[in-house]
Amino acid sequence: MAHLILIRHGESLWNAKGVWTGLTDISLSEKGKEEARTAGASLKNTKIDIAFTSALKRAKETLSEIKKTLNLNSLPTIESKALNERDYGYLTGKNKWEIEKEVGDKMFLKIRRGWNTPIKNGETLKDVYERVVPYYQTVISPKLKDGKNVLIVAHGNSLRALVKYLENISDHGVETLEIATGEIYVYEANINGTIISKKKIGAYR
Fold first, then answer.
1. Is 9 one of the catalytic residues?
2. Which of 111, 128, 138, 199 has the most CB atoms at less than 10 Å from its CB?
3. How many domains does one find in the chain?
4. Alpha-carbon gap, residue 41 to 169, rounded angstroms
């Protein structure tokens, strides 16, 4: 059996301000660095063979803190834009709660969590799914089939898209899926790469 470990990056400086970050390359806050170290400590009894991260600083910094915590500085790591956060288009840099007041609760939920709600000059969650899942199928899943324990450090929406695929969540059901900063999902996969169990570890258990 192999393990697939998903971790959302720690709090970024823009997360702390309630601002849509998207593809803007923002670093972790001090709280985010601590969340990353806490995540690493939660994995101290878990063997990790290879790590994947997005191309954005907040994910890479989170992985760096995890590596330092676990003394895994030589851990093989692959970086890919396929795991990047959703492009929020015209909403990037805007305050979420101000937008919520403008558009109302129902539309705000669709914008933030909906499956295929368009954003001007941006991506839907469906768009994110269509780049994350093929990358997972062609690059990451083969590692699991080889018996490797895989760590992925990415973003709220890129991980939501992947979890939708892994757990076969409906288009409507994914609207209620939220992954907190620093949250950890651990899946067990069989020799075919099929997910057979899931657990949360650490502070979010």
1. yes
2. 128
3. 1
4. 30
Cα gap 94→19, rounded to integer Å? 5
Pairwise pLDDT comparison (200 vs 30), residue with the higher score: 30
Question: What range defines the domain where residue 170 resides?
Answer: 2-146+155-204
172 is catalytic: no
Q: What is the CATH number of the domain that holds 93?
A: 3.40.50.1240
Tokens of 146: 């080889």
Q: Which residue among 9, 155, 175, 183 is the active-site one?
A: 9
Could you tell me the pLDDT band of residue 120, with boundaries at 50, 70 and 90? very high
Tell me, what DSSP letter sits at residue 81?
G
Inter-residue contact 65 to 36 (CB < 8 Å): yes
Amino acid at 139: V
| Active-site residue identified among 85, 123, 175, 183 | 85
pLDDT digits (tens, 9 = 90+) for 194-203: 999 999 885 5
Q: 């069989």: which residue's tokens?
A: 190
